[in-house]
Amino acid sequence: MDSDTNQKYSNQIYTVLNVALLYPKNTKHGLIMRLGHYELDTTIDEYQKLLNDIASDEKTLVYLDTNILAYMYKLHANARKEFYNWVGVLKNKQRIFIPNWAANEYSNRVTTGKLRDYTNGSGSNKNVTPSNANKMYEALYEMAALFVDDSILTKYGHTADRAKYLSDFRDAINQLDKYTKPFNTQFNVGEIHKEIADNFSDIVLESDVSVLCARADSEGPSRFQHRLPPGFEDGGKDENKFGDLIIWFEILEHAASNKASFEKILFITNDEKKDWVYAPTSRVQIVNGHRKSIANKKPQIKIAHPRLTDEFKITIGHDRLTVCTLANLIESLSKQQPTHYTNIAGAIQIDIQTDSIDSSDDEGQLEQEKTQTDDVGGEVIVGVVDNDTAEIGLEEENVEQDELSLHDEDTPFEYLEVALHDSHYSSEAPGEINEIIEQLKSHNWYQQNPAITKVLSVLQHDCDPSAVFVLGRNIYQSACGNSQKATEFIASLNTKLSKLDDEVANHLLTGMVFEIYFDAQGHPRDYTKFDYADTVLSVMTKDRYEGAREYIERKIDDANIRLAFVPGSSGEPKLPITLKTEPQEDRENRYKLTSVVFNDEELLVDDNDGRSPKNYNILEIRDIISNHYSVPTWALDNDSEIKVYGPVLIIPEDKKLSV
């Protein structure tokens, strides 16, 4: 499938779940799959966890579509690198491939000089260039020179006269140039093509495409006439109308020959046409601890067409076929290892939001979804972000004193027990803060991002402390799921909090730090949630946040949590990481790592299985230790001769890092 399909895949997941998750009591799975699903007994969160598990399972074969290669031209360099790293891990285990026909579709763009069609300078973003932006601002300047006078400036709060206004306007336009110039070098078509060739050439299947083409020519017309997927939506094309079908034949052929070693198939594609996937009418959402049937919208879960699953099962012998977009793959992987996918997650969210803004059809659909309700199984089904959906918040009934968390007189804050055990936090009370909390709990980027933008505007001086505390927890949770706006909020946390009343800022920060060390039941985490802790813990060292420091210190003491770094401390003296190395005489800039000591513990231990990573750099070792021991990177010191990022540190074959 080439990217010419120009499909919107904003927040879809396409997968066939294990029958035990979908219909645990149903024994007629084959019949249901052939007739299609009306309702999915699964939540978005469960769905994403399953998708992560499938992608991470060493028994899963993964195939990439043409449009995934094409999408590399929409990503900046760091985002591409994160995807290449993920592909590299799977390549080492020989479980990721590109159908030969997908490679053929891509190479056709290369040989006809049409690679630039894949870039952000095409499609809905074809006019978004530094040159065009400059022309637009020049036009605005000319308009201002013609129409703006002193009376208009006074009306809109400008104290300077017209001449000064125009001079400042011109200076602002000139300043933009230094910010837009990097766009011209970020998406170098030739460089990106080289990266694609270097990273993907060795995983292209060696299928005989001439045989597959002949089969598609023979079977395709009949399949399309009877709307047998995939590809019947392309039946009107003059060229490559059987492309989807050929790729499908390749996947079936290769999966069948490898079914003894691989039990699951994952096809990653940004194509969401109806000849590949469909959306069941309803799915499940957890409301007040109960599973409720809601409309399968915003986000919409789509699963493989039942006829595809049926053909797959007949050919392979099982129906463990999963199809997903790159966006949903990254969102699901982000739930487990957010810092591995920060850049690509952010880039994908920006691209999808831009597509949504540019699409008038999407706007009409969104408006329709705001008002539409369906009746399923006797229950009213509402969209996930519909105002009728129950909100997460405080219960309206009076709270008895013994429900409050215990505190001593020196502690300035107290929070409801349901705030500390936020899995029990009620979903009944109205209020803007609680609306935001509910959207952040959706586990969906496209609800979380707009919610984050409202945070500062709703946090007034008289906000309920427990609600603000829970909001802080959920902002941090959203950042750990790589919500773009949440990670931006954390990155500029000090500035954001400076706009709030002191006590409100302390409550919000306390919630964030509490989330690092305590789980949804209010119990100490087995492993701290340390992905974005560097900034949060740095901000907490400031004098303004004494209340937050005192509360967190008391909770950690009460829970008897032993930490190498106490949150709230300044990180001085820094904790040393001691590395011992030996230069590799025959290899420049490479060193044998013979010892790694932290916290008086030797971290280089025997490797019994020989499957652990062997190559690191100094920053990677620092980050591993930071996460494992819950110490901010700014509180660590590199106590070794190697101080720079560049050298490769090689662990001996019989050793591994124990963290």
From TrEMBL:
<protein>
    <submittedName>
        <fullName>Peptidase C14</fullName>
    </submittedName>
</protein>
<feature type="domain" description="PIN like">
    <location>
        <begin position="61"/>
        <end position="282"/>
    </location>
</feature>
<dbReference type="Pfam" id="PF18476">
    <property type="entry name" value="PIN_8"/>
</dbReference>
<dbReference type="InterPro" id="IPR041578">
    <property type="entry name" value="PIN_8"/>
</dbReference>
